[in-house]
Amino acid sequence: MGKKGWGQPIRRWPIYAGGGTGNMNLELMGVITIVAGLVILTAPIHWSFSLMVLSTLFGAAAALSLPMLGGATVLVPSLFLPFFALRLFMAAGEGYFFAALQPSQAGFWLLLLTSFGLLTAVFFPRIFQGITETMTVERVANGRNFISLTPLRFSSNNITQSVYSVGGVVAFAAAFAYFRKAGTPRHLIGAIVLLATMNLAFAIADVVTYFTQTEHIMSFFRTANYALLTGSEKGGLKRISGTFPEASTFAGYALVLFALTASLWLDRMRSWTTGVLGALSLAALLLSTSATALVGIMVVVPFLWLRAIATGLRDPAMARPTFLVVAVAVVPLLVLILVVLFPGITESLQDFIDEMLLSKASSQSGRERTLWNAMAYKTFLDTYGLGAGLGSARASSYVLVLLSNVGLLGFLFFLIFVAAVLGARTPRNADSELLCVVRACKAGVLAMVATSAISGTVYDLGTMFYVLTGSLAAFAVPASAGGPATGSQHSLRPADSMEAFS
Question: Global pTM?
Answer without folding.
Answer: 0.84
